[in-house]
Structures are given as C-alpha cells and as structure tokens.
Amino acid sequence: MRPVLAQVCLAGVLICSAGATAAAQNATATTQSDTAPPSAVYHPAYEATNGILSSGREVVVYYFGAASCGPCNWPKATQALQRAKMLVKAQAAAHGAQFAVIGVANDWEVDTALGFLRKEGPFDEVIAGRNMLNSAWIEQLWRGSTGVDAMPGIVVIEHDLTIGKQSLTVAPDRVLLAFAGADKLLDWVNRGAPVGVQ
User: Fold this and answer.
1) Which long-range contacts (CB under 8 A, 24 or more apart) does 124-133 make?
2) How many CA atoms lie within 13 A of 181 on its CB side?
3) 24-49, pLDDT tens digit by residue?
4) Range list of β-strands (E), 21-152
5) 130 by DSSP, 3-state: which?
6) CATH number for 95
7) How many domains does the chain have?
8) Whole-angstrom Cα distance, residue 5 to residue 52?
9) Residues 6+ apart with CB under 8 A from 93
10) Full domain range(s) for residue 160
11) Could you report the per-residue pLDDT of 83-92, keeping only the tens digit for each?
C-alpha cells in the first residue's frame, strides 16, 4: 500500500488526500501543457440562459475542497479544475444536456470558504462553511454511495429536470463519476475528464 499525505480535521475524519507521495511529486512535476487552462473560461449557465430554467437532462459537477486542504491549493490542481469545467461542459452539450458546476468548501468559517472558492474560479452555485456537515457533504457524500471521503474530491451526477408552470421535478441523481485526490484530478483532466455522459 502506498503512503498517503493527509490532513485531518478536529473530529479525526480524513478530509484531504494528495494520493501517494510519489504521485504527488509527479503531479507537481507535470508540465504546464498537461494542466494548462483551456482557451475559454467557464461561465455559469445562468449567464447564457438569463436564468431561464428548462426541462431536460442536467449534468452537475460537485467540487469538494477547502482552504485548509494543502493539495486543493496546488496551482496545478486549480488549473486542472478550470480545465475540467470546460471539458465536462463540452461533453454535456454534445449530448444535449444542461450543465452546472457546484463548488463546495468545507472550511468552518464561511468567509474563509468563500475566499477559497473565489480562487477556484466561477461556479454556478457555492456551498460554504459548516465543515463536513454542510448540505453538499451530507447529501452527496455521507448519504450517497460515492465513496469520496477526502479532498480535493469530484462527484459528477446527472438527473432529469421537468419544469411545469408552477412546479419543478428533479429525478433521482445518477452518479457518473466520483473520486478524491489531487493526483487523480490531474490524471482525469489529462485524459480529457471523461464522465460517461450518454
């Protein structure tokens, strides 16, 4: 078994994983072209739709990180996240699906969490504060079956939206992808950030 660099919260729960020491060193040595940001910058969906909701399938990327997580703050991890937003958005569009990305920072202090998420670039939604008891951690990680219990973490889900005159129905989430670790984030993005949208 490979050694893991980790940061532990006060409750003793693993919250930050860089992967194997060797993989972390290799990730730092990755060339700039491997994690270079895309030529376009991600813009939240509401900017293109003027906030108008529509029925159909939606692909959502949850990014779990924190200011207190060392690997979450690696410049190459931040660059990979920016690139991932564009790559997954393109996959969703190619399959006629809407797209959103949600940034989740589990720092206790909301201001600290929001500062961290601002550094990570634009999101369609942010969930900040309350450590691992915030609503996204509870819904996507603790109640879900993703197996992601460390940061940085990625969970990609899809669901169907039905917009009525005075109602909104969201079908149950289908998990397309879930993983944790900066080394896995870099590898995933270098492979084109495949999520299996169909």
Assistant:
1) 124/44, 124/45, 124/46, 124/100, 125/100, 126/102, 127/102, 127/103, 128/104, 129/105, 130/106, 131/9, 131/106, 131/107, 132/9, 132/11, 132/13, 132/15, 132/106
2) 17
3) 333 333 333 343 444 578 988 888 88
4) 56-65, 98-105, 125-128
5) coil
6) 3.40.30
7) 1
8) 44
9) 99
10) 4-25+42-190
11) 999 999 999 9
Q: Can you tell me whether residue 186 is helix, strand or coil?
A: helix
Q: Residue 60 pLDDT > 70, yes or no? A: yes
pLDDT exceeds cutoff 60 at 7: no
Residue 197: inside a domain = no
**Helix axes 21-29 and 75-94, enclosed angle (nearest 10):** 80
Residue 156 pLDDT > 90:
yes
Examine the pLDDT at 68 and tell me if it is beyond 70: yes
Residue 135 lies in a domain: yes
**Per the domain annotation, does 37 fall within a domain?**
no
Does 146 reside within a domain? yes
Question: Residue 186 phi/psi, 5° resolution?
Answer: -60, -45
Closest CA to 16 of 116, 99, 139, 158: 116
